[in-house]
Specification:
Elements lengths: L1 H11 L4 H12 L7 H13 L3 E8 L5 E7 L1 H12 L6 H13 L6 H24 L9 H32 L9 H10 L9
Antiparallel strand pairs: 1-2
Helix pairs in contact: 1-2, 1-4, 2-3, 5-6, 6-7, 7-8
Organism: Phormidium nigroviride PCC 7112
Protein name: Transcriptional regulator, PadR-like family
Pfam family, one: PadR
């Protein structure tokens, strides 16, 4: 996920490693671990593979030059590939990955955004069904366990509602329909009633 995040930020603008770390911490620290021990080796690998390139140098605070990196066409191709793929991973990691992808949605085509939203929504429905299926198999024994499960279900339901609204918004944008103050409530209603046939895809 660090590679996806770094390439995405470098696609927005060239920057040196220190600035990249700052932006990763600002926008994505809730999703990934950000430290110099991972960032600089990653930048070195990306440059060796021709996916980023040094375009300038500037003086650092200690007098050491800082390389300014920019993404290359090869790097953009890798970034798009990583944006559209769905690796097998834990539920927690898949949620973090989607959150990172959503940050860069503005650089995708409308149809690509729709596919990613639909995939995440199906995954959430599948997760919801899975949690329900465990109720009889693993009965809870105290108030804290019940509260924890209810919190989990609430967070999941909230994400499903949000994803449904985002899908409806994307479809309206593709259709050329602009939201207005008078149509906002109607749009929200349509978004919440949107039904996506969910398969076993996760």
């Amino acid at each position: 996920m660090l590679e996806l995040s770094a390439l995405g930020l470098l696609q927005l603008q060239p920057m040196h490693g220190y600035r990249l770390k700052q932006k990763l911490e600002l926008f994505m620290s809730s999703c990934i671990s950000v430290n110099y021990g991972a960032i600089y080796p990653l930048l070195k690998r990306l440059e060796e593979r021709g996916q980023i390139a040094t375009i300038a140098e500037e003086a650092g605070d200690a007098g050491c030059p800082r390389k300014i990196y920019a993404i290359t066409p090869k790097g953009r191709e890798l970034w798009r590939q990583k944006m559209l793929e769905h690796p097998q991973e834990s539920w927690v990691n898949s949620g973090s990955r989607f959150q990172i992808k959503f940050f860069f949605f503005g650089d995708l085509e409308p149809a690509e955004r729709l596919k990613l939203l639909e995939h995440r929504l199906r995954a959430c429905y599948t997760r919801q069904d899975y949690i329900e299926s465990l109720k009889s198999e693993y009965p809870l024994t105290d108030d804290y366990q019940f509260a924890s499960r209810d919190r989990c279900k609430s967070v999941l339901a909230s994400e499903i509602e949000w994803l449904t609204e985002q899908l409806a918004k994307e479809k309206r944008a593709i259709a050329g329909v602009r939201d207005s103050p008078t149509s906002a409530e109607s749009a929200d209603s349509k978004g919440k009633s949107f039904q996506l046939t969910h398969s076993g895809e996760s």
